[in-house]
Amino acid sequence: LTELLPEYMVPSAVVVLDGLPLTANGKLDRRALPAPDYASMSSGRSPRTPTEEILCRLFAEVLGLERVGIDDSFFDLGGHSLLATRLISRIRSALGHAPSIRDLFRSPTVAGVAASVLSASTTPAQRRITPRERPGRIPMSSAQSRLWFLHQWEGPSPTYNIPIVVWLQGEIDEEALRRALADVVGRHEALRTVFPAAEGESFQRILGPEEAEPELEVVVPSAPDAHDEIHEALSHTFDLENRIPIRGWLMRTGDSEAVLVVLLHHIAGDGWSMVPLMDDLAAAYADRLQGRGPGWSGRPDLAVQYADYALWQHDVLGDPTDPESLAGTRLAFWKKALEGAPELLELPTDRPRPTVASHRGGTVPFSLPEETHRGLIGLAAAQGVTLFMVVQAALAVALGRSGAGTDLPIGTSVAGRSDEALDHLVGFFVNSLVLRTDLSGDPTFTELLARVRETDLAAFDHGDVPFDKVVEALSPSRSTARHPLFQVMLVLQNNTAARLDLSGVEAEVDFRHMGRTKFDLTLDIGEEHDGTGAPSGIVGRLEYAVDLFERETAEALVARVERVLMEVVTDPERRIGDIDLLSADEARRVLPEIDDGHRAVIAGRTVHEVFEERVVRAPEAVALVFEGEEVSYGGLNA
Question: What integer is the mean pLDDT of 268-282?
């Protein structure tokens, strides 16, 4: 019952609940709890002030619900970190002030946010992003500068390509599709920007629509699956200095079947960009089929372009060397937060790290069943954290117990779209954060969640300073062999899934892995839901660097993360050192079979007790043998 009692109940409160699902040891089995019905969870209490009325509307819009009461918790209604960022942006735009991420977690209701909006804890509104006067040389955003640096340092490669593969069935009008792709490039300046350099400085040069028509190459593949042609297309390298960062291929696999491949360089887009890109392409194609230019009917107006964002970013962040600037205060936080963090995680690799990373990658699938998914949501709600934080803690436990230590910097990405004017824009806004995860002291899993919560909320509150500025401020040793500050990335995919609704054509979008990876390990997962919106499982993949890992090692790591999550659902108070990580096969290899007589001797006693008895009985007996050297039990004990 203590797991269900809300914090505000008095200690003498008594709750009687019939039919609670329990495990064999009497713990609450969260996996067997019914899924929450978010649509019917509204408290029904109506807003009493204009501020509460506005906030109820914003909560409902962001969560996709018809109504929200003033006492409804944002996170109980299905909110997560990405939606929280979007909500804060909407609140800031509407009311001039907004809570921080930390404040929203502490008071996640309309009533709580309404109170905090008037308090000193709210963050003042940054200047809105508006159309800017363009200088002769438009500076790159910090994110673009980071990729440009990598492009120059490592050389052109497909590592930072974003591929979209769409399987089409139906009659495709090639000319209409070609014109539609050009229309989309004309609508989004980021897609028609090149990056020349002059006097040692690179900048954005935005081409006019007439000089930036994208290539759409029509190909007849050698096999119906177009495997070789798709692979060749995805391996394309962009000339960022002279050519626009997008191109396409239409592969005719049959009379009424085709594959559309659209390749976008990361310098011009991110995961969030895929939805407006596909929606705009569908709208333009419909117009071109009717023989008219794009009217963008039903599509949002683009009040600003990416160059306006880049100029705004330079203005708002200010001089990083000025401690009073926004960039200066944010960097001071990151210097303190990452002080003493390991620059390189000692992961359980199969091969030594090469001098130069090849970025060749493999993938291993990840999955959790419906009951575990439900249980994890229940665990997150009970501990006041998000599902992302639960998975982060489990990943850290699996890596730490596999030899990575107790201080684990794990990277993640945030959308970076702090103004709703950017919601429908194609561009590179995403930012990377370092989430330092502390496993020291063998905490219980719930204690670890509390640590993760505090660390993550502080990081999210300071996540508007670009990652490359953090790298510059901390000045870690740079290497072509590894990513700076973190080598393990965790991504929870909670963006709206991109679709391509072409008139008269069935289309299935396939965001496939390119066989490339930017990090040593990337755990990329997403939630699945049934027709009623109830959780129905978690699926994803672990990307691993082929330079470092065999596939079997990656499979073992995935299995360990899955086992941690399935164990902590039923027993979150277990200490992380007691969580059983080994598969049956691994246990047999580490703990060889012993006969029943010896099993009876050691039953009920710990390993170190049995070891110490052996030391007393035969201190000179050989305990360890390695490469011709021997260590006795007495020597090992000493």
Answer: 93
